[in-house]
Amino acid sequence: MPDAPPPASSATRRLRSVLRELFDAHLAQRAPDPAAVDDLNATAAAVPTSPRLDGWGAGARAAVRWHDDYHGHPALAAIAGEAIGLLADPRRLGTLRRCGDPACSMLFLAENKRRVWCAANVCGNRARVARHYSRTKA
Question: For the whole prediction, is pTM greater than 0.85?
Answer without folding.
Answer: no
